[in-house]
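Justification of resources, computational component.

The compute hours requested in this renewal are based largely on the per-chain cost of generating structure records like the one below. Each record pairs the submitted sequence with a full structure-token output. That output is archived, and it is also reused by downstream analysis tasks.
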Amino acid sequence: MLRGFYTAASGMIAQQRQQEALSNNITNAQTPGYKADQPALRAFPELLMDQMGKTNVPTERGLNFPRQNPIGPLNTGVYVHENIPDYGQGDVRETGIPTDMALVNGEMPDETGGLFFAVQNADGEARYTRNGNFTVDGQGFLTTTQGYYVLDDAGDPIQTDGMEFTVTEDGILQMSGRNIPLGIAYTENVNQFSKEGNGLYNGEAGPVPVGVTFTVRQGVLERSNTDAAQSMTQMMESYRMFETNQRVLKAYDESMGKAVSEIARLG
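The structure output for this chain reads:
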């Protein structure tokens, strides 16, 4: 019976964490470049249950031999193994703001490959983002809305001296006779990236190799790839599963209460 407590409780915890991930997806449904998290549930190892007994041998000494009768497997519950981001391309919407940019994926030989804007975090380290909601700070540098510098292909902050610039489809900032290539980074495996908040990702990435194509569009933003309707449906399913485990846990608790109070009193 105690195993039943743990199994039902683990189910409730797993559903609660799934609810948190889905709620975060819905909250960021309007965040540019946001990639929805997909909770991955895994089962704890199953246990093979055996009935322990003995076989009496009719001898003078009354020998007994141990005996095991297989009963079957026992599932010990589930847990959220990890939240896996969905790096699929989000829709783009036009804003008309010249500092807004969207990175549109083209041909990529690797199914797990991904393209990102290179930025610099508060500690001066390179990070990556799909959120092209950029702006120009008071010193004329192109930055994210959180104040992180947008980098060029050499890893340096981009000085624009204002908002009078154009961006070509291959990611070249053109202004006052200068051409500055945007820092577009590529990774062969987006699953090795980790989220750091504020739309930033940490991981190993490098220059865009031959065979990988992309388009940079100015005046538009990539929308979140969260499907709000689907997320709401998943939340309702998760809530029902939570309630089911809750009822099972309550039934176990009532049975345990009877075992302690009523059966003990009869003894």
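The first strand starts at residue 37 and ends at 43. The radius of gyration is 29 Å.
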